[in-house]
Amino acid sequence: MRRRGFITLLGGAAAWPLAARAQQVEGVKRIAILMGGAENSENQARASAFQQALHDLGWREGHNVRFDIRWGLGDAARIDAYATELVSLAPDAILATNTPTARALKQATETIPIVFAGLSDPIGDGIVVSLSKPGGNITGFTSFDGPIAGKWLQLLKEIAPNTAHAGVIFNPKTAPHAIFLPVMEATAPSVGLTLTQLPVTNQTAIETGIGKLASEPASGLVIMPDVFTGLYADLIFGLATRGKLPTVCPLRVFAVAGGLASYGSDFTDLFRQAASYIDRILRGQKPPDLPVQEPTKYELVVNLKTAKAIGLAVPSTLLTRADEVIE
Question: Which residues are bridge partners to 117 per DSSP?
Fold first, then answer.
């Protein structure tokens, strides 16, 4: 149940995709949306929030704006193909929804304005030059800053006080771990944890890493944000639950998939904010003049079903602070 920040999203999946619509009406602005993940309820809610925010800013679908949306399903080749297709439609602006989509769109066009929502490290991934002066045709909203990684360890220790050792699972092929690992290494001693890095690039590595971690007493697991860990969320949390490992995650969707607790940016809010930049671009501003914004709204989610499955009693003080409790 939502404790705070519950928002009823208007509209929904029935409003899109819109590729089969009639030819663009003269004067109507065209917005392309490249979703990196699957067409599930979580991602549909984000896309719907983006569209609703634009509606609230005066952009009415079928009146002065139309949308073209594509779903990447976490597949790099599919994302690249859709990026090329959407650019060929000559939209007035494009929404990128994670690092792979932003990277593919940047390669596909140097002129069409692109706004991203939800990138962990746009500088490290080569998407923008800097946050204050992004340069080129891309700007947007980041999903995390480095210090939040320390809060993940603090949360793990709070929700499972007996934890003495934390495994950190991440994809070594993407940039985010470079900004989070140093923070974790600096924070771990202060909260009484030792760390083990678990870089994973395939299912076997996930199974081996979590299996070894589960065999060590007083262990817990922290999952870093990444498309790869998202694609394997069910496997990761299934293994962790069977191994009785408390898990802390950066995304609500991870807690829904079986993680014990998540603390991170409210991605639905990021999509709403992205709409504000698209609005400004449609009204004449340029991406280089719009600095990349860092997140301002965070959410704490606790999964009591997972807590019960691993035999853990969640402190009442933590439940009181939670934005959402999954029961």
Answer: 141
Residues 24-41 pLDDT 10s: 334 899 999 999 988 988
pTM: 0.83
**Tokens (6 digits) for 139:** 């700007």
Exposed/middle/buried for 4, CB within 10 Å: 0-12, 13-18, 19+? Answer: exposed
Domain presence at residue 312: yes
Residues 6 or more apart whose Cβ sits within 8 Å of residue 261: 155, 159, 246, 247, 248, 249, 255, 300, 301, 302, 303, 318
Domain that holds residue 104: 13-143+267-296
Torsion angle in degrees (nearest 10) through CA of 20, 24, 28, 29: 70
User: What's the token pair of residue 194?
Assistant: 């030792």
Inter-residue contact 219 to 160 (CB < 8 Å): no
Q: Whose CA is closest to 180, among 189, 191, 190, 169?
A: 169
Please tell me the distance from the alpha carbon of residue 158 to that of residue 124, in angstroms, as a whole number: 31
Q: Are residues 158 and 290 in the same domain?
A: no
